[in-house]
Amino acid sequence: VQLAESGGGLVQSGGSLRLSCAASGYTSNTYIMGWFRQAPGQEREFVAAIGWNGDITEYGNFVKGRFTISKESMNMMYLHMNNLEPEDTAVYYCAAMIVGTWSRVEDYEFWGQGTQVTVSS
């Protein structure tokens, strides 16, 4: 399984970005997909996850309605981020698993390389 993120960049505080994650090589149609982020010197943090058919979502506590996770298909996932703050600056990673706790980094089997999001004040 390969995951590839795109859509990161530099944005001003209060702005918006849409991250994309393209998946290939799936051997099952029941993958749970998630977004995590990691700022310099900090642990990787859960952002959001979505069930295999897109009908169930879960978000990290810090999201507070600003981000929305969605799926276009089994192989394409998005993270719509609004009202971005400097504290959202991090590398954002796409991840996938078949079973596990959605917010646990350790449970995800497959990871992308990450895309940098930088929010200026």
Write the layout of secondary structure elements.
Elements (H helix, E strand, L loop, with lengths): L1 E5 L2 E4 L4 E8 L7 E7 L6 E6 L6 E3 L7 E7 L2 E6 L8 E8 L12 E2 L3 E6 L1
Parallel strand pairs: 2-11
Antiparallel strand pairs: 1-3, 3-8, 4-5, 4-9, 5-6, 7-8, 9-10, 9-11
Give a description of the structure:
The protein contains no helices and 11 strands. Helices cover 0% and strands 51% of the residues. With 121 residues, the chain is mainly beta. Strands 2, 4, 5, 6, 9, 10 and 11 form a 7-stranded mixed beta sheet that branches. It has a 4-stranded antiparallel beta sheet with strand order 1-3-8-7, with no helix packed on it. 30% of the residues are buried. The protein has strands spanning 2-6, 9-12, 17-24, 32-38, 45-50, 57-59, 67-73, 76-81, 90-97, 110-111, 115-120.
Provide a quick synopsis of the model.
The chain has 121 residues and is an all-beta fold. It has strands at 2-6, 9-12, 17-24, 32-38, 45-50, 57-59, 67-73, 76-81, 90-97, 110-111, 115-120. The strands form 2 sheets. Strands 2, 4, 5, 6, 9, 10 and 11 form a 7-stranded mixed beta sheet that branches.
Q: Main beta sheet, described?
A: 7 strands, mixed
Helix content: under 10%
As a percent range, the share of strand residues is over 45%
Q: In DSSP terms, counting alpha (H) and pi (I) runs of 4 or more, how many helices?
A: 0
Series of H and E elements: EEEEEEEEEEE
Task: Indicate the mean pLDDT.
Answer: 96
Subunit organisation of the chains: single chain
* N/C terminus separation: 37 Å
Could you say which structural class the secondary elements and strand pairing correspond to? mainly beta
Q: What is the number of strand segments?
A: 11
